[in-house]
Amino acid sequence: MTAAHATLDTLETPCLLLDETRMTRNIERLNGLMAGHGVQLRPHLKTPKSIEVARRVMTRPEGPAAVSTLQEAEQFAAAGVTDLLYAVGVAPAKLDRVLALRRSGVDLTVVVDSVEAARAVAARARQEGAAIPALIEIDCDGHRAGVQPGQAEQLLAIAQALHGAGCLRGVMTHAGESYGCRSLDAIAAMAEQERLAAVGCAEAIRAAGLPCSVVSVGSTPTAHFARSLEGVTEVRAGVYVFFDLVMAGLGVCTVDDIAATVLTTVIGHQPDKGWILVDAGWMAMSRDRGTAKQPVDQLYGLVCDADGKVYPDLLLAETNQEQGIIKLRAGSGAALPDLPLGTKLRIVPNHACATCAQHDAYEVLQSGDRKIVAHWERFRGW
Description:
6-stranded antiparallel barrel, 8-stranded parallel β-sheet, 30% helix, alpha/beta
């Protein structure tokens, strides 16, 4: 059945739904915030991994955009996106693919965080006779890779190694610890910490007489609650396009903003255990338990009816490979709803990136409508 004739009632399950109305609202929200700061947004396309979604996220067909794999870079480049940041530390063995993209007309920038990596990039650039632009990753919060802001000697050694081959473009950082914040004020403070780390390192590089044209920061929480972006040239964010329960748990969005859900079907009951069985297991939802450390643990996802209305305290509580177990939240006073065999439900995911990665396509609909208006392919791989 084609998308033009499909409805929620006729779709085979499990499958990935995308509410385009909500997605568009989410995109416009962050675009408006960045316009208010006067800073360029570089959307991270690792969440959607879809040409159709990318066309709606980017303000210009050519970008800018960020990716997390070279597969993404190649797919988006083939669709005409020519301003790309490969926002993961580059391995020397991947530089041939980087150069192939750059030779094809893509302005692809890579990321390094050590002198060893910088020298590898510089050596390959000299061998090729063409620069490979690079950003130096700064560790603003101890969350992952990067140069510590106070390690000026290491920072400048990396910058010098890149500059010698014409590869130094700037600095970047990512406040991943913002996902662990417990208030909007804490997110705002983390955004300032992120900004100061990147801007301070950029100033140190410039003070040494070296160029640093790009100061790139970003995470979905900090992008939404930064109070100042002075000194920043671009902001990166990704999951804001769809949002998810982790973002809702942080207060960055509400459940009603979450655009990507999984459609599933009731396949059985265990009344004595208070279980409703569905055909969405961890192969459809992923094993991500991102809300487990938040004040409200949503287990494997909130359960909604087919139209997206949340059932009070009803959760996807356990998952097997192809089967999920729906139960009431522990301690709830709600009644288990009567959901006959064959009932269609939606599951709201903890982590949109992880759940979407389990599927090959989006079935697209508009808020309040059961008709499927489009079928948008996704891609996977590295």
